[in-house]
Design a protein that fits this description.
Aminopeptidase, 7-stranded mixed beta sheet, two-stranded antiparallel ribbon, 10 helices, EC 2.3.1.87, Acyl_CoA_acyltransferase
């Protein structure tokens, strides 16, 4: 199951390796605006129209933020705090959620937190003990001969709007088999959600969380990390981290009964799967 990485625009500024071009070219200026869109506003898995924020305003904001951060494993005891962060910065901003006007969805909450018992997910915590960023991961194993076909995600989803999103995930599963591309692996680590409090942008939190995830995979003999991105911005973030695209489905090509199901705001134009091989110790 894959709902994808945090699609916030603020992730573009939350990774220290991403730089913003300085140019008067209108096309590059548009790109710059997109990358900076969440410096003052909440962006996300569904970004809307953006505004350019000057560097001076960013400098005024950063000193107000608690910069003493630590990265640690998430446990089931963190569930309520994790959901609080996601509801504020992720659930309402993911492109498909925004398009269908998802609203409250208990099934999405269950999906996001169901793998916390694996202890493969990580949180960024400030000196006050507040969670300001998370990466939620889960291990997916290769089906074995004789295994019963898994139930489709949409078939067990009661929420009508979320069921549309799950049906898209089912379609991707039916048309793309990652184990055919990587026949040497028997499991992979699925990075489901990466979300950072917008106040903590520009501090490299997304990069630190991803690095810790790569460390976990290496230590646990997991050779591949997988991300399904429904957002243009989250895909760009992962590409900056050397993830490579292995599958793309334009939203215009996903149709049910001849009708296009999803048409989120541009630049969100496709579902993309990106992967990264990791060295095993």
């Amino acid at each position: 199951m894959k709902v994808e990485v945090q699609n916030h625009v603020d992730h573009l500024s939350s990774i220290s390796s991403i730089t913003v071009p300085s140019t008067h070219d209108p096309h590059l200026l548009d790109e710059t605006c997109l990358m900076l869109s969440n410096l003052l506003t909440e962006g996300g898995r569904m970004a809307s129209k953006v505004s350019l924020v000057c560097e001076e305003m960013q400098k005024e904001t950063l000193p107000q933020v608690d910069r003493e951060l630590s990265i640690s494993v998430i446990t089931e005891a963190d569930t309520d705090d994790i959901l609080d962060l996601l509801k504020r910065f992720f659930f309402k901003d993911e492109p498909l959620n925004t398009f269908v006007k998802l609203g409250e969805c208990m099934e999405l909450e269950i999906y996001c937190t169901k793998n916390l018992g694996e202890r493969s997910s990580y949180k960024a915590v400030n000196s006050k003990g507040e969670i300001v960023g998370v990466i939620l991961n889960g291990t997916i194993k290769k089906p074995q001969p004789g295994d019963k076909p898994p139930m489709k995600l949409a078939d067990r989803c009661a929420h009508p709007k979320f069921r549309k999103i799950m049906a898209l995930m089912d379609h991707v599963d039916e048309n793309f088999d990652i184990f055919e591309i990587y026949p040497d692996i028997d499991r992979f680590l699925d990075c489901k959600i990466l979300s950072v409090d917008t106040r903590y942008r520009g501090m490299g939190i997304a990069g630190m969380l991803t690095d810790r995830t790569i460390e976990y995979a290496t230590q646990n003999d997991i050779k591949l990390i997988h991300v399904l991105c429904t957002s243009h911005f989250s895909a760009r973030v992962m590409e900056k981290m050397d993830f490579a695209e292995v599958y793309r489905l334009p939203y215009a090509d996903y149709r049910v009964n001849g009708e296009q199901v999803f048409e989120p705001e541009k630049p969100h134009v496709a579902v993309r799967i990106l992967t990264k091989r990791v060295d095993v110790q």
